[in-house]
Amino acid sequence: MFVVNITNCSRGIRNAWHFYYALVFVFKAVGGGIGIALLTP
Fold it and tell me: Which positions, given as ranges, span the membrane (predicted)?
């Protein structure tokens, strides 16, 4: 039971990291798009 609990926890952490990286990627993409829009006359 204890081992199963650890794997469940690590899976949740891994999913959280994937979500965080996806969020950062989207933020960079949106921020980059805004930066390009501001730089182009």
Answer: 20-39
6 vs 25: CA distance, rounded Å = 28
User: Is-above-0.70 flag for pTM?
Assistant: no
Q: What gap in Å lies between CA 19 and CA 7, rounded to an integer?
A: 18
Instruction: Enter the tokens of residue 19.
Output: 């979500």
Domain segments of the chain as ranges? 1-41
